[in-house]
Specification:
Cytochrome Bc1 Complex, Chain D, domain 2; 10 strands; alpha+beta; Cyt_c-like_dom_sf; 474 residues; oxidoreductase
Length: 474
């Protein structure tokens, strides 16, 4: 019936008995769920609890006196003590093996009175010490929590390292705002955010989910999927060379800058489905991001992390995604040469000779970006009027009916990796695309005049595709 109890005491130990146990978890400070009686051993520096089934508690005080409350005997007392040299505090680790009280002796004579008197005398002192210790613990916890929530970022040096923006030969100047220059720290932060699902509502998808590097930063789907497998409205556009886009972004050109572009997917219910208020809190309370934002932007407090800085970091990273080393680029730099088939395909693409049929490709896909960045209606959808387009594209942004059914002219770089094609991913192969343009597309009031019936032979199409493959990064 004996039970061994192990605990740590510092200086004086006191015992407090409560006949009515509380339903609290074992191990919580100053309390435990007990079956019969609860004893709390308390000191100004520690709490520990133990239970007894009408057992006796043996305490060894700093005066090396042995007391047994309500018991006549105790066995197997093992003490290991260390005495400090300066403060002379005693720290004891006790292993107590207790015997149950003799039932016959309970409640008889002065023994019960002595027990009651002892507990009465120490009750108030135990209460005060318990309250004092709890206050100290609460203050310590409050300070620790405050330190975690409000890290002192000023101790982290802010010295960003400037990066030179990529500027390939013959490319237009990259669009870089004065308030968001490229830095090594900013790009690193943007890259981490790009691949981190923390920006989505349920932390299930990231920017990479729809912009996979191996697929030229597209996702290989006709239309993208968001959180909870929600189906989007359009195909994910490639992010390669997006830093050179000076005429708006997205298929409909709804935003002017990369800094603004990154804000939209986060709050789109069909994409990441979050709010920037919630994302800001997640980043502010993250163990690593406050430091990274400090290194990139010099913030002084974690509360400064917001959508603006996230947008800046993502924009810096995306401006480093440049495609400018394809075979076409190397041929233009006279480092390589086209094969005869590729050369003929180049001639067809640019309508460079009357000896080959006209393709009209180069009117909308101008090198080196292979896009005019304009918005065109290429006759994908039959429409008798300007109001017949289910997806109005650019018109939904400008509110101009003449812009209905128009979408950004996409780049032709890395077509090998970016299928399916068009804003709704309707064409699975390049042959499907050529079939559409060769047919002249569907008529419409604002269809581009460059979309007209073509007369391309099987060999012409093969040569044209051979040239288009020189625009792939290998």
């Amino acid at each position: 019936m004996s039970k061994e109890i192990k605990g740590m005491c510092i200086e004086r130990s006191m015992v407090r008995q409560f006949p009515n146990p509380l339903p609290l978890k074992v191990g919580s400070i100053g309390s435990a769920f007990l079956q019969h009686k609860r004893y709390i051993l308390a000191t100004p520096k520690c709490f520990f609890t133990t239970t007894t089934r009408r057992h006796d508690v043996l305490l060894r005080t700093t005066r090396r006196k042995r007391r047994v409350f309500g018991a006549r005997s105790a066995k197997n007392v093992v003490s290991s003590c260390r005495r400090g040299e300066k403060n002379k505090q005693r720290s004891c680790v006790k292993a107590l093996s207790l015997e149950p009280t003799d039932p016959a002796s309970r409640g008889q004579g002065s023994g019960n009175d002595v027990k009651h008197s002892i507990f009465s005398n120490i009750f108030h002192l135990s209460t005060y010490c318990s309250i004092f210790t709890l206050l100290v613990l609460l203050m310590t916890c409050s300070f620790a929590c405050q330190s975690n929530e409000n890290p002192n970022l000023n101790t982290i040096p802010y010295s960003p390292h400037a990066l030179i923006a990529p500027q390939p030969p013959s490319f237009p100047p990259m669009v870089i705002p004065k308030d968001n220059p490229l830095t090594r720290e900013g790009v690193a932060l943007g890259r981490k955010l790009f691949f981190d699902p923390i920006l989505s509502q349920d932390s299930s998808i990231s920017c990479r989910s729809c912009h996979v590097p191996e697929r030229a930063f597209t996702d290989g789907a006709a239309v993208s999927k968001g959180i909870a497998a929600r189906i989007g409205k359009r195909s994910a556009m490639s992010l390669l060379n997006v830093g050179f886009y000076a005429k708006g972004l997205f298929w409909d050109g709804r935003v002017a800058t990369l800094e603004e572009q990154s804000l939209h997917p986060v709050r789109d219910s069909l994409e990441m489905g979050a709010s920037w208020a919630s994302i800001g809190q997640k980043l502010q309370n993250h163990p690593e991001y406050p430091r990274l934002f400090r290194l990139a932007f010099g913030i002084k407090n974690h509360k400064a992390i917001d959508s603006t800085l996230v947008g800046k970091a993502l924009a810096q990273f995306e401006r480093t995604l440049v495609s400018a080393n394809t075979k076409f680029d190397r041929v233009m730099q006279e480092k390589e040469q086209f094969t005869p088939q590729e050369k003929r395909g180049w001639t067809i693409f640019f309508d460079a000779s009357p000896a080959v049929p006209t393709s009209e490709c180069n009117h909308c896909h101008v090198d080196p970006l292979f896009s005019t960045l304009a918005f065109e209606n290429n006759g994908l959808v039959p429409a008798l009027s300007l109001d017949d387009y289910a997806d109005k594209g650019r018109g939904a942004i400008t509110k101009n009916r003449n812009d209905n059914g128009q979408f950004r002219v996409p780049t032709l770089r890395n077509l090998k990796y970016t299928a399916p094609y068009m804003h709704d991913g309707r064409f699975k192969t390049l042959d499907d695309v050529l079939d559409h343009y060769a047919s002249g597309g569907h008529p419409g009031i604002n269809v581009s005049p460059n979309v007209r019936q073509l007369h391309l032979s099987k060999q012409d199409r093969a040569d044209l595709i051979a040239f288009l493959n020189t625009l792939n990064d290998e």
